[in-house]
Amino acid sequence: MKELIDKLYETQVLERKELVHLLNNFSADISDYLFEKSRLVAKNNFGNSIYTRGLIEFTNFCKNDCYYCGISKSNKNADRYRLSMEEILSCCETGYELGFRTFVLQGGDDGYYSVDKVVEIIKKIKSAYPDCAITLSIGEHSYESYKKFYEAGADRYLLRHETATDVHYKKLHPAELSLANRKQCLYNLKEIGFQVGTGFMIGSPFQTVENLADDLLFIKEFKPHMIGIGPFIPHKDTRFFNEKQGSLELTLLLIGILRLMHPKVLIPATTALGTIDPKGREKGILAGANVVMPNLSPVNVRNKYSLYDNKICTGEEAAECRFCLQNRMQKIGYELVIDRGDYKE
Ligand code: 5AD
Ligand code: FES
After folding, report:
1. Model confidence over 290-335: pLDDT tens digits?
2. Is the N or C terminus of the chain more exposed, i.e. has fewer CB atoms within 10 Å?
3. Domain total of the chain
4. 200 occurs within a structural domain
């Protein structure tokens, strides 16, 4: 097993069967051996700097019905909201003062926000904060729409592929959504010039280690600028309410593997990771992640953006999360930095 990790460290690649073997047979010892290397690679590329992104969850309306997600359209218990332009700009203002230089606009796939409306939001934020990067995380759109977002000033786009296996994708999504279209969107975003992030959940229902190996291989081939992964966590109002949540150990192992496969890629220690373990985000950083994405959404809507149960930070103000994370990072020897945190070759 250690030889496989050495090979990954030296060459940044493993064959599919080697990945499957590693995922099936890892132990605490092997994880520690991996994390020493993945942490070193992160340190060599980013020092002890942790990039931050201010997350603005601006709508929880969604026209899609992903089976795992708490804000999918068929959840009649979801209390729906949209932030106004003023509210979004006020989140940015607070965020800017707190040192954020990237704003992530995340939302359900909400038809209310036409291409023109999104373009207007991007332009307003960019003119008020020209030194900040804007990341969009608003799902699948046409090539033309993506291009308009980019031309309006959006810099980055997050769109997790969720699983790179067609049959698995179909078990997690209704028939209207396809892996082929998801991948086409990712390639379109890259061609247009966005810094692109993809990723997947660990422990989603029906997932096998072979699926995970294929996720890693798809990401290797796609070469994203950012990779977001986190454990699947059931939501009470979805058909997967009774499924098991993803494993902390496996999520951390995958962060370590991804860091060795992609030394310079931006990897967040996600909120979902912090939700399944009180020290989850710290453990993510120590496994090779280098980004945190605290929430800037107004406190009165926080608990409504509920993709999964027991999400952390739903009662805290933006400033509380910012300083909480600063303390958490300092305790493990890292610093939050005031920086756009762009991908660098
Ligand atoms: N558990 C964990 N992550 C989830 N996401 C959606 N629902 C859940 C869940 N129940 C993730 C998806 C999506 C991202 C915004 O949140 O991977 O891409
Ligand atoms: Fe939100 Fe700690 S990061 S309370």
Report:
1. 999 999 999 999 999 999 999 999 999 999 999 999 999 999 999 9
2. C
3. 1
4. yes
CA of 3 to the centre of ligand 1 (A): 33
| Alpha carbon of 7 to ligand 1 centroid (Å) | 31
The percent of residues above 90 in pLDDT, for the chain, comes to: 100
Distance (Å, whole) CA 92 – CA 134: 11
Burial class (CB in 10 A: 0-12, 13-18, 19+), 315: exposed
Q: What's the rounded Cα separation, in Å, for the pair 332 and 211?
A: 33
- DSSP structure class, residue 246: P
CA 132–ligand 2 middle distance (angstroms): 23
Which residue owns the Cα nearest ligand 2 atom 1? 321
Find the radius of gyration of the CA atoms of the chain.
Answer: 19
Q: Does residue 131 lie within any of the structural domains? A: yes
- What are 177-203's pLDDT values in tens digits? 999 999 999 999 999 999 999 999 999
Residue 343 inside a domain? The answer is no
User: Which domain CATH number covers 58?
Assistant: 3.20.20.70
Ligand 2, atom nearest to 322 Cα: 3
149 domain-assigned: yes
Q: Name residues of the chain where pLDDT drops below 70.
A: none
